[in-house]
Design goal:
Layout (H helix, E strand, L loop, with lengths): L2 E4 L4 E5 L3 E8 L3 E9 L27 H5 L19 E4 L10 E9 L18 E10 L4 E10 L4 E10 L5 E14 L4 E6 L7 E6 L3 E7 L11 E5 L10 E7 L4 E7 L4 E8 L6 E3 L4 E3 L2 E7 L2 H16 L13 E3 L1 H4 L5 H13 L4 E4 L27 H11 L3 E6 L3 E2 L4 H5 L19 E2 L5 H17 L4 E4 L21 H19 L4 E4 L9 H4 L4 E3 L6 H12 L7 E2 L2 E2 L12 H8 L5 E3 L7 H23 L1 E6 L1 H4 L2 E7 L5 E8 L9 E3 L9 E4 L5 E3 H7 L1 E3 L7 E9 L1
Parallel strand pairs: 21-22, 21-31, 22-23, 23-26, 26-27, 27-28, 28-29, 30-31
Antiparallel strand pairs: 1-2, 2-3, 3-4, 5-10, 6-7, 7-8, 8-9, 9-19, 9-20, 10-17, 10-18, 11-12, 11-14, 13-16, 14-15, 15-20, 16-17, 24-25, 32-33, 33-34, 34-39, 35-38, 36-37, 36-39
Pfam family, one: Glyco_hydro_36N
GO molecular function: alpha-galactosidase activity
Catalytic activity: Hydrolysis of terminal, non-reducing alpha-D-galactose residues in alpha-D-galactosides, including galactose oligosaccharides, galactomannans and galactolipids
């Protein structure tokens, strides 16, 4: 069994194939964290790690210093007001205005499988999986609150998934002001905190800093997980590399406001917490009602960041993404946005489709500008009716013309937004998120629809579903181009206004759940101004997310490296665009743009009708490469070999078949140099005893040579040059 309980020592042991997570009950009531790390076959003596026999002792032995106990005990779930002055997970206000809450152990249950979280994305267990769940029940009888701490163990996937369920067991309302989902207390090992940071156009750059005394956080209060921070944090030991060092990681399965915080205390312990950001949050919990907090995925690695990445990749491919496209080759698509922006009509799109078909491209995606009076970005969001001046005969006629050229058809929506200049806003101005008496701030000339309101959710769904029912549409790009301001709902009562941000995200989840239920064969790609809502929560509904609006091949190196730290390459929306690049103005070789985009879903963001004959031939060759190597991108094991973000010269990654039969290695020389010799690249994940031939040559290498000696990559003249090397076992 993955989970056991020793009644004699009050010890829970949660085992995956290579890790153990230990929880102890101190003084028969306090739930404490004992250990998370390499798998322990024998836990004799582990309970001592709770330090209950050291000063200040447990309260039953030393009630006079109970607050000192609270300030150093390694809680599994910390609360406010009882002496633990570190970052808390739970704050509940009573009708009398008090915020003291003390949860004590009252029981537990261990069972096979993994429950779903109603209305929320969640990691799932398949029938026959080695998944078990522990639910520890604790209560504060004084205020009438029950909390269920849930731990689901995925033995083969090497992960522990945590969440919390609150229930009001009293006779009056409770006001939840803070409810985080996970807490872990560790002894400091001179940790560094690793996060993913950035901005629009430079999302998810890997950032590392020493963990000094005090609090270090990554967070978002923007209404989405955001471009700027990512709902992820890891504590790593000094000198951690791809292959060495210890990593303690948390990843939040949620798409809204979040807090990921690490705090080093006076006692040289470190607390790591994660959950919904408490700023602006308050939830009214009525008698008998429950509140389910989202999940946190916990991963430990003693073999560096590479093993952590493999754990997340395997878990998300096997237990989070539900789309039928998960193990299917995605169609190579071309999107017209950077080709035409708003300036297009049906004839222009068909012209693009014809040239795309000749190059082997399989789908045309019609982006923004096809509806209402949407000839620029300050109008018509919310008016999801086809502009027949651009598309004579309507959408079905447009789709038939594109399909007549042999391409599938996809379409862009931004369903969560409304333009002030729209029929929808003129009819329902109260449907926009706003504070009465204030003029709401615009961003990109638009407001956010209040998806906490069921009638707004129903309207949005009717619009999207109606369009999809009207024509043969295979793909939807679901965009969200602004973040929250003026947070207020014209429908929620005053005491419920603090629920708006979370209810909004629940509305997004409901919309997408309804969409994939009615249209199960739809390929849904999420987007939020690029990568502004690239998080595990959205992958529960879509198998891929647009990684960044910045398609420059060099900028994408750091963006895609940080993204691949947590997500499989097959999830990463990556396309080839025109040069000079529309975001940064850089010129890069067409081949390098293709090689970088091949480490993702692969497609094009350009006007193919304006390419030269040579460039069109390169498109054909790139599409052939995609079909040749995509099975590795889709199902292979990802290895990071070199990081341009670290060495400032070159980038290199590898995807190897799980059975070690082949591997594709991509090398990008970002900057050339003077009097520089060839570089030695050491591969990973191969069979030491096998021989491998480099495709396109007669050169054969042993697996040992490739992994320990390396293969030479010749330095070429010029910046931004690249190559893909394919090694096949002979």
């Amino acid at each position: 069994m993955s989970i056991t309980f020793d009644r004699a020592s009050n010890l829970f042991q949660l085992n995956t194939k290579s890790t153990s997570y230990l929880i102890g009950i101190a003084d028969d009531q306090y739930i404490g964290h004992i250990y998370y790390g390499r798998k322990l076959d024998n836990c004799q003596g582990c309970y001592e790690l709770l330090r209950t026999e050291e000063r200040p002792f447990v309260p039953s032995k030393n009630q006079r210093d109970k607050s000192a106990f609270g300030d150093c005990f390694p809680y599994e779930y910390s609360t406010v007001g009882v002496g633990d002055y570190r970052e808390s997970c739970l704050s509940v206000r009573t009708p009398q205005g008090h915020r003291v809450c003390e949860l004590v152990y009252t029981g537990h249950e261990i069972f096979d499988g993994k429950p779903e979280l109603p209305g929320l994305p969640s990691v799932f267990a398949k029938e026959g999986d080695q998944a078990q769940t522990l639910e520890i029940t604790c209560e504060d009888a004084q205020i009438g609150l029950k909390a269920v701490l849930r731990y689901s163990v995925f033995e083969d996937a090497d992960a522990v998934v945590r969440s919390v369920l609150l229930e009001n067991t009293g006779s009056g309302p409770l006001y939840i002001e803070r409810v985080l989902s996970a807490c872990m207390d560790l002894d400091d090992e001179s940790f560094e905190m690793l996060t993913l940071t950035g901005s629009w156009g430079r999302e998810r750059h890997i950032t590392k800093c020493p963990l000094t005394y005090g609090k270090h956080a990554a967070s978002s209060t923007r209404g989405c997980s955001s471009h700027q921070e990512h709902p992820f944090a890891a504590l790593v030991t000094p000198g951690t590399t791809q292959d060495t060092g210890e990593v303690y990681a948390m990843h939040f399965v949620y798409s809204g406001n979040f807090l990921a915080l690490c705090q080093k205390s006076q006692h040289d312990s470190v607390r790591m917490v994660m959950g919904i950001h408490p700023e602006g949050f308050e939830w009214v919990l009525k008698p008998g009602a429950t509140f389910q907090a989202p999940e946190v995925v916990c991963v430990y690695s003693d073999q560096g960041l590479g093993k952590m990445s493999h754990t997340f990749h395997d878990l998300y491919r096997g237990h989070l993404i539900r789309s039928p496209y998960l193990h299917k080759k995605r169609p190579v698509l071309i999107n017209n946005w950077e080709a035409t922006y708003f300036d297009f009509d049906a004839d222009k799109l068909v012209e693009i489709a014809k040239d795309a078909k000749e190059a082997g491209i399989e789908m045309l995606v019609m982006d923004d500008g096809w509806f209402g009076r949407r000839n620029r970005d300050d109008r018509s969001l919310g008016d999801w009716t086809v502009n027949e001046e651009k598309l004579p005969g309507g959408l079905s006629a447009m789709v038939e013309r594109v399909r007549g050229e042999g391409l599938a058809f996809g379409i862009w929506f931004e369903p969560e937004m409304v333009s002030p200049d729209s029929d929808l806003y003129r009819a329902h101005p109260d449907w926009a998120i706003q504070v009465p008496g204030r003029t709401p701030a615009q961003s990109r000339a638009q407001y956010v629809l209040d998806l906490s309101r069921p009638e707004v959710v129903d309207y949005v769904y009717a619009c999207v579903a109606g369009i999809l029912r009207s024509a043969d549409i295979s793909y939807v790009k679901w965009d969200m181009n602004r973040q929250f301001t003026d947070l207020g709902s014209m429908a929620l009562l005053p005491e419920h206004q603090g629920e708006l941000a979370h209810r909004y995200i629940l509305g997004v989840y409901e919309l997408q759940e309804r969409l994939i239920t009615e249209f199960p064969d739809l390929l849904l790609e999420n987007c939020a101004s690029g990568g502004g809502r690239f998080d595990p929560g959205m992958f529960y509904y879509s198998p891929q997310i647009w990684c960044s609006d910045d398609t420059d091949a060099v900028e994408r190196l750091a963006i895609q490296e940080g993204t691949a730290l947590l997500y499989p390459l097959s999830c990463i929306g990556a396309h080839v665009s025109a040069c000079p690049n529309h975001i940064v103005g850089r010129n890069t070789p067409f081949a390098t743009r293709g090689n970088v985009a091949l480490a993702g879903t692969f497609g094009y963001e350009l006007d193919i009708t304006r390419l030269s004959a040579d460039e069109k031939e390169q498109v054909r060759q790139q599409v052939e490469l995609y079909h040749r190597y995509n099975h590795l991108v889709q199902e292979g094991v990802y290895y990071r070999i070199a990081s341009w973000q670290e060495n400032h010269l070159y980038d290199c990654w590898e995807v190897a078949a799980e059975d070690k039969s082949e591997a594709a290695v991509t090398y990008v020389q970002v900057l050339s140099g003077v009097n520089v010799r060839s570089r030695k690249i050491r591969l990973k994940g191969l069979d030491e005893g096998a021989l491998y031939r480099l495709e396109g040559t007669d050169q054969v290498y042993s697996g040992q040579v490739l992994m320990y000696g390396g293969v030479l990559v010749k330095m070429e003249e010029g910046d931004f040059v690249s190559r893909v090397m394919h090694f096949v076992r002979v």
